Amino acid sequence: MVPWMSKELLEKLKGKKEVYRMWKKGLATWEEYRNIVRVFRDAMRKAKVHLARDAKDNKKSSFKYISSKRKTRENVGPLLTEVGDLVMEDTEKAELLNAFFASVFTAKAGPQESQTLEV
């Protein structure tokens, strides 16, 4: 669900859909449907503006909104093995990163003995 969608907006959306169904059956006029669409659209715009204004105070909703708008994912670039070979395949990258993190977060390695991954 989108971050600005409240229970009130969901109820208005359901009402809009219901009036649309009624209009399709001839039980409501086009003007009634358009008025409900305008009310819903205005309420949704106000909710989006309210979310944008509260971005400083409500960080969780802000990041949820930003994440919903992102269409791409960041991919992991090519990695170098300990020997210096370049790893391009996703499964090989996953195995390499898994082995690295498993070696870093073992019980016998202390914080001063941690390794760094060279890219």
TrEMBL record:
It comes from the Eukaryota. This is Mitochondrial enolase superfamily member 1.
